[in-house]
């Protein structure tokens, strides 16, 4: 049987006549989960979320239940919830869809998460380039307020919650949770040291803070609606639920695809759901989890042992789309942004593009990242413009090898991984650009 | 300060300040800068000082944000700011050819403004619409699947 989508979060948005208005959401059964949640003790909601096995959909795949359990509830300070809607990882466009087409599911998720964690003020940090999404969210919050789902004494209870929308202004680093918090405090989005600044303890204004991605929060009404145990039956062990994948690049049908985690392979996704590689061409490379994920090569062969001791032997087509399988083969599910590169793709040029992005977006706080991302971009720029120097391929790799683990935030890894993996897997294409003779009198760092 | 801030902008900023605790006014920074740029099309030195006074911080605190966040401008731009997505998926969909076309058509380079101050052209990093590339933003309007022909038609509608 051909693999199909499992539409849960995206089930409503493409129905004929469905709008972003609250009537559409209510007619589809929306806010029923909130009523159910508010009849539960907050700790029970948190238990349901733990039982569901929900893992963060922003990039790190961290357990949502565990994240909530780390919140300091005894500090006496207010607890804040921040919805991370700063979607910016190249290749990722699912949060845009969820916000622009079904905003009330996000609002409902935020109210449930806030009630479960005794949060009285929640912020949605939406990226600056989503002005329409910003207006849609403001409208949705007002509609929800008019129905008493947001605001004072929600649904006649003693519980009150304000949801405020805060816009970013074009800085990718503000998608990193501590960078986001700095930005929300009115500063440059410089990520903070962890420890001590774990948001769950010392977050927004040094108060305990939960930062959850849009898609993660959209899962909460589903989990409360069906119960955490039932939700955990969707997907596979340790990779529960669905995931909204963003597929772009050289495929016939790019777009968002919601699939059950671990129940579909990359082959079924690309060759099935996405209608195959564009123009009937062959696949050359696959970026599986946003541009910072390590690239897969079409002829890669992955062999090893699963955590339960069973062996696996996969070509790219066989790799299940889930968090753990991608981690096993040395890359990551990341933000779920899948970029397809066909046999005509110029890999050094593609990498130059990605490197340029990271050089532009490095916040500049840590020297290895600030300088390294720029040096890599410069080297790739000259290599792809006829100016490669002897040894540039090695030079690139040596820079990339010296960034990870030496920076405050994971941006260091994010900018190094694509370079490390592309140079390793497509070495010939980079070496081919180098001159056969050493060029004299030109420094490499130019 | 001699600077006259229009009452509606002042009122908008005062409303934004209510979104944050009274002793955390500085948190409104990015929102206030958006409001200022929407009004004046850029953030001037005078408005940096005005913002600092409004938020109870030093002008340097505002200045470091204006220079950090790519969406803020310190110089006026053209009436229409055209931002072409530079990043990978849009490049694979022809975004760079599109950018070359619009540069040639308007006779300006990236970050340039036409002499009549109608258009400013710039790259933008990933607009998170990679399935519908190439993507272009013109002021606050987002446009998908932009071909050279479509862009020409769009520009013709802008007056």
The CATH class of the largest domain in chain B: Alpha Beta
Largest sheet of chain B: 4 strands, mixed
Count the domains of chain A.
3
Overall morphology of chain B: elongated
CATH architecture of the largest domain in chain B: 3-Layer(aba) Sandwich
Q: What is the count of helical runs of chain A?
A: 17
CA-based gyration radius of chain B: 18 Å
CATH architecture of the largest domain in chain A: 3-Layer(aba) Sandwich
CATH superfamily of the largest domain in chain B: Glutaredoxin
Strand tally of chain B: 4
Number of strands of chain A: 13
| Sheet of most strands of chain A | 5 strands, mixed
SSE order of chain A: HHHHEHHEHEHEHHEEEEHEEEEHEHHHHH
Keywords:
heterodimer; A: 446 residues; alpha/beta; Ubiquitin-like (UB roll); de novo design (two linked rop proteins); 3 domains; B: 159 residues; alpha+beta; Glutaredoxin; 2 domains; 4-stranded mixed beta sheet; 4 strands; elongated
